[in-house]
């Protein structure tokens, strides 16, 4: 872990934006945790607000973990952050808010745009949330609208189709209200059953 000084503000800002773009049900407490980055090398261009991490990149913030071969982080003139993670595949994992389940994703390229709050997964894209899964050549997720989009493609090992697995929601057990003894009264209209 290296202290980057002035450049650290850019790196921390972009990484925080990249990490918190994960779906809205993700663990909120992660936003308050420190960002830790490990890589074999880093190049920081303070003037152009670009940082490039290369070689076994591991980013953590609370329950969030991102693995990539290469990660490029940028900040535009308006202060919006964006980032691109490359891997074979690049992956992310984060705990869901109020649950023991995780949201996980992977693709050869993962891009985040802080201005639009859009997350895009390119090539062999896969997102798993709990037991639900979505696969395609391309998956996008907008954190503002909570809208997913998946497209198929002609990947060499793929089928050219989008695949989704959506588990049924657990049904809440039916509870019957106990009948109070006052509600039960003998009927005067019933006759005695015949003797056998």
Give structural notes.
With 196 residues, this protein is mainly beta. The chain has one domain (6-169): Lipopolysaccharide (LPS) transport protein A like domain (lipopolysaccharide transport protein A fold, Sandwich). It has one helix spanning 6-20; strands at residues 36-38, 41-45, 50-61, 64-75, 81-95, 102-113, 118-129, 132-142, 147-151, 163-165. Strands 1, 2, 3, 4, 5, 6, 7, 8, 9 and 10 form a 10-stranded antiparallel β-sheet that branches. It is elongated and about 100 Å long. The model is unreliable at 1-7 (pLDDT under 50).
Features:
10-stranded antiparallel sheet; elongated; disordered N terminus; 8% helix; 196 residues; 1 helix; lipopolysaccharide transport protein A fold; mainly beta
Could you list the spans in which at least 5 consecutive residues all have pLDDT below 50? 1-7
CATH top level label: Mainly Beta
Characterize the largest beta sheet: strand count, sense, and whether it forms a barrel: 10 strands, antiparallel
Count of individual domains: 1
Radius of gyration: 26 Å
The CATH topology is lipopolysaccharide transport protein A fold
Kindly state the mean pLDDT as a whole number?
A: 78
Shape: elongated
CATH superfamily: Lipopolysaccharide (LPS) transport protein A like domain
Decide which structural class fits the backbone. mainly beta
Number of strands: 10
Strand percentage lies at: over 45%
| Gross CATH architecture | Sandwich
Q: Give the topology string: H per helix, E per strand.
A: HEEEEEEEEEE
């Amino acid at each position: 872990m290296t202290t980057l000084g002035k450049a650290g503000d850019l790196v921390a800002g972009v990484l925080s934006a990249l990490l918190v773009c994960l779906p809205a049900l993700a663990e909120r407490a992660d936003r308050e945790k420190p960002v830790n980055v490990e890589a074999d090398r880093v190049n920081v261009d303070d003037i152009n607000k670009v940082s490039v991490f290369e070689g076994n990149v591991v980013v953590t913030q609370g329950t969030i973990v991102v693995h990539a071969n290469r990660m490029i982080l940028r900040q535009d003139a308006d202060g919006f952050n964006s980032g691109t993670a490359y891997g074979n595949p690049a992956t992310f994992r984060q705990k869901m808010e109020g649950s023991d389940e995780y949201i996980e994703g992977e693709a050869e390229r993962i891009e985040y745009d802080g201005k639009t709050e859009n997350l895009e997964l390119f090539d062999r894209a896969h997102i798993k949330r709990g037991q639900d899964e979505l696969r395609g050549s391309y998956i996008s997720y907008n954190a503002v609208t909570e809208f997913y989009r998946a497209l198929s493609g002609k990947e060499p090992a793929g089928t050219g189709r989008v695949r989704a697995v959506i588990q049924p929601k657990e049904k809440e057990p039916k509870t019957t209200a106990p009948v109070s003894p006052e509600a039960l009264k003998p009927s005067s209209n019933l006759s005695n059953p015949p003797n056998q």
